[in-house]
Write a structure and sequence with these properties.
Layout: H1 2-29, E1 33-39, E2 43-58, E3 63-67, E4 72-77, E5 84-85, E6 90-96, H2 98-126, H3 132-154, E7 161-165, E8 170-175, E9 182-183, E10 188-194, E11 198-204, H4 206-209, E12 217-222, E13 227-239, E14 246-251, E15 262-278, E16 283-285, E17 288-295, E18 298-310, E19 313-317, E20 326-329, E21 339-342
Parallel strand pairs: 1-21
Antiparallel strand pairs: 1-20, 2-11, 2-15, 3-10, 4-6, 4-9, 5-8, 6-7, 8-10, 11-14, 12-13, 12-15, 13-14, 15-19, 16-17, 17-18, 18-19
Length: 348
């Protein structure tokens, strides 16, 4: 009787253990899980770009300020700021001021007097009535008088009226004189910018400025205008205190543009290679970038660094396991170790 009772007790205990095991596994199976979509790990490459904003401006040496070399009176102004001009087109007309005409007349008289003295000294020397030192002094005085008169002629002081003309095809950006004004020598009359010398000056985040170098290609979109192609010409070595950005100059190769127009430049800084994933697969978390992979039906968090993004894709670097699929949908609900239900993997 006792033997039968012990045997029944052992069978009952086995049933209890089995029931407990099945109950535990059922509870485990009924635990939380997330439906996700995955793709295989793929390596690829993207062009790394920097986006910057700025304006069209004259490049180095593109602007020429036109001045008068002698005292003159402005008789007419035939251009205005923003006007396109061709090479040789008249921008302003001037006349020699009375003081200039007097200076030129004095220079002519000084030349004539010096030449007469030189001729007389030579005649005296031929009769042994003058010394060679006196002849040398007369020759020097004549040379000085001739040089002074020649300089005035080159400056246009021998003409009663003269024109100020565009030295090249370009844009008039400033008119600094008005009709009737008397201008001292060296006074600016107008500024002309060579159209072929226009550039885009853009501001770049100092953290990205180190990736820029002369010669890198850039696409420049002029707001309200055309899309242009260019290359980096210069990169400033300091931060602009007004904007907190580093200025970079993009040459436009002579393409037409309006000075002052706002632009957006996309600068290609090289090709980046690594693990290629959809941009939404890499999520920011606590100041870092994270992607998720699936191992044995559970989520694995991988901290990565996004190297470049373009066209909805990102290149990431980090300890990505090439044998495990990457989650591309449903990743926002994942936690480390959580169970996942994987839909059919997508090609990529």
């Amino acid at each position: 009787m006792t033997r039968f009772f012990c045997s029944d007790a052992r069978r009952l205990a086995g049933v209890v253990v089995a029931v407990a095991w099945f109950a535990g596994n059922a509870a485990l199976a009924a635990g939380p899980s997330v439906l996700v979509t995955t793709i295989p790990v793929t390596r690829g490459a993207l062009e790394r770009t920097i986006t910057a904003y700025g304006r069209i401006a004259p490049g180095m040496g593109a602007a020429r300020t036109l001045t008068t070399f002698y005292e003159a009176v402005v008789t007419a102004v035939e251009a205005r700021p923003g006007m396109a001009v061709r090479k040789g087109q008249v921008i302003a007309r001037i006349a020699a001021a009375p003081a200039t005409r007097a200076a030129y007349a004095q220079a002519v008289a000084a030349r004539d007097g010096a030449l007469r003295v030189l001729a007389h000294t030579r005649a005296l020397l031929a009769r042994h009535l003058a010394t060679r030192t006196q002849l040398a002094q007369s020759e020097q005085a004549a040379r000085t008088a001739l040089a002074t008169l020649d300089a005035l002629k080159r400056e246009g002081a021998d003409r009663a009226a003269a024109t100020i003309e565009a030295p090249f095809a370009g844009i008039v950006t400033a008119i600094a004189a008005a009709p009737g004004a008397t201008l001292p020598p060296g006074t600016a009359i107008a500024t002309v910018v060579r159209r072929a010398g226009l550039v885009a000056v853009v501001g770049v985040d100092p953290a990205e400025a180190g990736r820029l170098a002369a010669g890198q290609p850039a696409s420049v979109d002029v707001f309200g205008g055309a899309a242009l192609r260019g290359r980096i010409k210069t990169v400033s070595g300091e931060v602009d205190p007004r904007t907190g950005l580093v200025n970079a100059t993009v040459g436009l190769g002579g393409a037409p543009a309006l000075i002052g127009a706002m632009v957006r430049a996309r600068i290609d800084t090289g090709t980046v290679r690594g693990v290629l994933v959809p941009r939404d697969a890499a999520l920011p978390a606590e100041g870092r970038d994270v992607i998720w992979q699936v191992r044995a039906g559970h989520a694995v968090r991988v901290i990565v660094h996004v190297l470049a993004s373009a066209h909805g894709e990102s290149i990431v670097a980090g300890p990505v396991d090439p044998a495990l699929p990457v989650v591309v949908a449903g990743n926002a609900q994942l936690k480390p170790g959580i169970a996942v239900r994987v839909q059919a993997e997508q090609g990529y």
